[in-house]
Every structure is written in C-alpha cells, then in structure tokens.
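The instructor's notes for this session suggest beginning with a concrete chain rather than abstract definitions. Hand out the sequence below and ask the class to guess, before any prediction is shown, which regions might be ordered.
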Amino acid sequence: MNHKESIQAADGKLGILIPGLGAVSTTFIAGTLAARKGIGQPIGSVTQMGKIRLGKRTENRNPAINEFVPLASLNDLVFGGWDITPDNAYEAALNAGVLEKELLKDLKSELESIQPMKAVFDHKYVKNLDGEHIKHEKTKMDSAKALMADIAKFKKENGCNRLVMVWCASTEIYVEQQEIHKNLPEFEKALENNHAAIAPSMIYAYAAIKSGVPFVNGAPNLTCDMPAIVDLANELKVPIAGKDFKTGQTLMKTILGPGLKSRLIGIDGWFSTNILGNRDGKVLDDADSFKTKEVSKLSVLESILEADLYPQLYKDMYHKVRINYYPPKGDNKESWDNIDIFGWLGYKMQIKVNFLCKDSILAAPVVLDLALFIDLAHRAQMKGIQEWLSFYFKSPQTMQGMQPIHDIFLQKIKLENTLRYMMGETLIHHLGLDYYEENQ
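After discussion, reveal the predicted structure:
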C-alpha cells in the first residue's frame, strides 16, 4: 500500500455502473442525487457524515473522512447499469416503492436519463425472476465481451475518468467452487464453453476487471470469491471487494454478538426469521437462492463467537435462519430474533429483537461508501481483495486460508486504520501508553 503522495487525485467524473436497477440501486442513486441537491441527507454514509480521530486524544483532531482522504465528490458521480427490464431509473424507483413520490418528482429528469443497458441474465440462476431486456450471445465469453463494450461505451459517452462496478442484482442459486474456478486459463476456457458453473455475476466481475474497473459484490453469490478472479484482479492491479451488503438482521447480529461475547455471556440458541416482500424476497423464495443467502448469514455468528476458544459458552449453540416472502411488506422488512442466553452459574435469560427496517434505506449508504472507497483503493494502487472494507459485508471476502473478521467494531477499526495508513498518519491502538509514559 502506498502513502498519500502516490494516491492519484480524484479528478474528473466517476462512473458507477450497477448490475440490477432495482430497489437498492434506485434508492442509492435517488438518495445521492437528493444529497447533492441539498434536499436530503446521506445518513448512514461513513464517507459523507463520518469523522476520524487522528493522533492523540489530547490533540482533538477529528476531521471529516471526506476531507481527510481524497474521495470523489458527489457532484462528480455519473450513474449507469444493466437490468432485465427496460424501465429507466425513475420508473424503476416508482415500482420499487421505497421513496416518496414527491421526492422522486424532484429528481425525475435526472432519473429518467438513466436507461439500463440489456442485462446478461440466465433464468436458471434466479428462478423466480424473468425479463426480456437481456443479451442473447452465443457463449458466456461473448457475453463478457458485450459487457466490456458497454463499459467502454458508457465511459466515453459520459466523459468519465474512472469507473467502478457494484453488483446490486439478485441473489443467484448456490454454486460450489469447482475446478474451473481455480485458475484463470480454465475459467476463460469455461466461458468459451458455456460451462454451467459460471453464473451471470461472474461474467460481470470478469468483464469489469478485464476493463480495469474495480468490482464490488453486494450479494452472497460466489461471483469473485474464487482464485481465478482474484488472480485476474491481482494481475491487472484492480481492487475487488465483497460479499453481501450487511444490512438488517445481520447488521444487528454483528452489533449484539460481539457485545455478548465481550462480557462472556453464554448463548444456547439464536433463532432468526424475516418477512419481506420486495424483489429480493421473491428471489429468496426459491430454495436454491435461499441456500446462497443462508450460508452467508449463518457464518457470521460462528466467526464472532469463536466456539473453539469458548466451548462452555458457544459450542452447543443452535443457530437457525429463516426468510419468508410476504408481498404486502414490500421493501419494509421485518425481522425477529429470539436469543436464549445464560449467565452467572448458568442461569437462563432471553433477548427478543423485533427490527422493522427498510432494507434499501440501509443498503443505499453502503453502496455509496463502497463505490467511493473502492475508487480510492484503485487510485492508491491497491489491488485484489480489499479486506479493510469488511465493515460493509455479511460474508467478507478474505485472502485464501484466512478467516474473515465479522465483529463490526473490529471491522471499523481496521477500516479507519487503513485510511490513516494510506495518509501517513499514526495508527490508533487505544492503549493510551503515550499518556502514561509522558506523565511518569
């Protein structure tokens, strides 16, 4: 990693390309437009509202993050993407039903100008969705080349200096890593041969990286969490990050789980259920797509609690996750958690959490932060997996053989220390030894 002298300036326009112009992406785009017009606040965005401590506490240096590191300005962002329906961003936002119609009217002309390109889509990977606004190429490699042509055309027509891609499309069916995913030559041969284990999201990731475009995976799909894509990203010096935006119930788990563990409170069981009615809920109503999401959601607590180190407290914990499609809910997801805990002398207690949230409202600032931070990483000559962005993901992608950190507080420390390191500032360890040494 390089220090600030070698970070390229955030000059010119940054294009944010999004596969999937649905609830999350339209909420992100509309919210960003509203924020730069001054008719809305980017609440939840670390890049826009966060501050970072520098130096000793006594120095009282707490600049805004977007003043400390050279991030792209909201005024320089340009939006585009692909979808299986031809609706422009205004129509798609109305259909999603997340944001108020009055707000969307104020942004209508800008949203209407965002017309999705035809998507690379295969019904086999998302069984509960279908659409006609799709590419019909002979091979998966041809599809990748068509996406690369889209990327180049978008960059030229919109006068962008740089691009990033953030996957906001649906969860695909569960795909195990196979031999063709383990090295780049085999993967490229498999693209030519239309191999069944190559999902559309993998084609987008390949096309982005081959085009020199940083890629962020916002779903639990395998996508770029494989040696072939990681090798390509390292070879072409392109940063990647994933996977699965951390919102809703899992966000609460990464807040509550570390708290209980820090006080060594035992857990007998953690039952989680969700009801949601948006397109994501419809997709997850299919068992194969739910399996992909379930694997992502289940891994969180096991990592945080470290049952191998604390067998008396967590070894026998029963963890169950359920997601139920309920159309009347729309984008208003409701989750219930029943947590059976035990404390001093093994006495039993319970925690009940009922979280009524708007999934896309929680996801939108995550998309913004990831787009800006992955662009920063690229300008800082960082390549491959960006573990410091784990703060934003349910199932963070890590270097091969490394266990991900799921504790949101440790993730935040890692993110902030990475920013300090990039800018040549002292890392913060919270030991306070400097104070004691100076006052001896």
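Then share the key points. The first strand starts at residue 13 and ends at 19. The radius of gyration is 22 Å.
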